[in-house]
Amino acid sequence: MKIRSLRQLLAIRSAWIAVAPFIFSALLGWFWLRPQIIDDAEEHQRQLAGVISARTEDYLLASSRSISGAAAVFSKKLIHSDELQEYLDTVLASAMNLTSITFTNAQDRISALALPPEKTLLREEMLGIDLSLTSSVRQVRVSGRPAWSNAYLSPLGGGLAVAYATPAAEGVALGEISLVQLNSFLRKIATDGKYAVFIIDRRGQVIADQEGRFTARQYNLTNLDIVREGLASGKPVTRSFSFSGMKVVGCMVRAPLLDWNILVVSPVEQAYRSALTTTGIFATALLMALFLASGLSLFMSHSLARRFEKLVSHAGRLEAGEDAGEWPKAPFREFNLLGEALQTMANTLRERENRLSAQLRFLQQLLDSIPIPVYYKDVSGRYLGCNAAFEEFIAMPRIDIVGKAVYDL
After folding, report:
1. In this model, does residue 6 exceed pLDDT 70?
2. Which of 76, 181, 306, 384 holds its CA 20 to 30 A away from the CA of 111?
């Protein structure tokens, strides 16, 4: 069994007392608090993506309602045919994001067309064009319900656009909605610059982003795992990945109206800033608590060890025969009880020692009174004592006789 000093033992125990809660708290913070904070940060991204999705749909629905309203007016014959062109021009002028409104006849050929003032010269050339192969027109003919097209490069405006088609009498009302304003729209939503926001169509192509550079290049993001997973599952997806040479966290949410997706991206240190800050504060508090607890524990253990050292020193002085006085006192009842017990034991031992000394002196005097030589030995033949007559007989003092055998004399 390895024997340690009390000071060392108390120091080790005190260190464990301080370290054990620290380890438990650190594990609790790492495996419970940290995931909760990270989940909150990711949930914030999902909520932001959901808000952008809803506002994007509102952006598109505002223009689609203008087209549906014009189709309803035409279907119910609330306006004469000779007034239709003027009416469509008025609707187009009042709708900020519409670049054209087209009505087709029963053969899906353009029968009426509203264009911006700078494009009115193209109207005569476009009247009569067959739109039966246009995807949105074909969907309306098949289902009898409104339909949206994929995003495409507008031949009129030059930017990305999407077409909304809805039944109108025997034909189809087709409106082209410009997506150019979506870039500035996104900039207004995420103004703090902490996030990069992308609107992605069902093919993974960027329809709009805050800066507009990905939109201008018609960038496709299907090379990202989060985009492929989001397009395949249709469910919200959150994960970390590398983008433009930076480690980021992204959340992708589907906008059901057009089957588009909203991708919100932010740098890892930005997305998890609250988690990192909270973890740092928590770790700092734990370390400070550890150092404080360790210092107090070591101080208390050393103080207790010093009190026991005083007891040992006092006992050593008693053993040396010195008058050590009262045993050391302490503000602990148990320690004082121990001192009192040791004092009682020391007094008892001293009394017994005095009695034994008195008996030995009496026996020695009795032996010295005998005129003939007397001695006594232990089992090994060594002298334990003798009387004065034996000292005279052997001609040696008693101090030189005791402890020796006859052959040593």
Report:
1. no
2. 181
Could you give phi then psi for residue 134, rounded to 5 degrees? -70, 135
Residue written as token pair 């433009």: 244
Spatial CA neighbour of 95 closest among 64, 133, 141: 64
For 43-52, b/e burial (b = at least 16 CB within 10 A) is: eebbebbbeb
102 backbone φψ class: left, alpha, beta (φ>0; ψ -120 to 50): beta
Task: Please tell me what DSSP assigns to residue 321.
Answer: T
R_g over Cα of the chain: 51
Residue 359, SS3? helix
3 state DSSP class of 117: helix
Q: What are the sequence ranges of the domains in the chain?
A: 79-178
The span from the CA of 62 to the CA of 49, in Å, is 20
**What integer is the mean pLDDT of 325-350?**
74
Task: Say what the pLDDT of residue 68 is.
Answer: 92
When mean pLDDT is compared over 2-6, 146-150, 309-313, the highest value belongs to 146-150
Distances (CA, A) of 152 to 5, 95, 155: 84, 20, 9
Confidence of residue 282 (pLDDT cuts 50, 70, 90): confident
Please, which residues bridge with residue 383 across strands? 377
Count of residues in the chain: 409
Alpha helices in 190-272 (DSSP H): 213-216, 225-233, 268-271
Query: Mean pLDDT lowest for which of 97-101, 188-192, 295-299?
Result: 188-192
> What type of residue is 323?
D
pTM of the predicted protein model:
0.58
**At the fourth CATH level, which superfamily is domain 79-178?**
PAS domain (3.30.450.20)
Rounded distance, CA 270 to CA 190, Å? 14
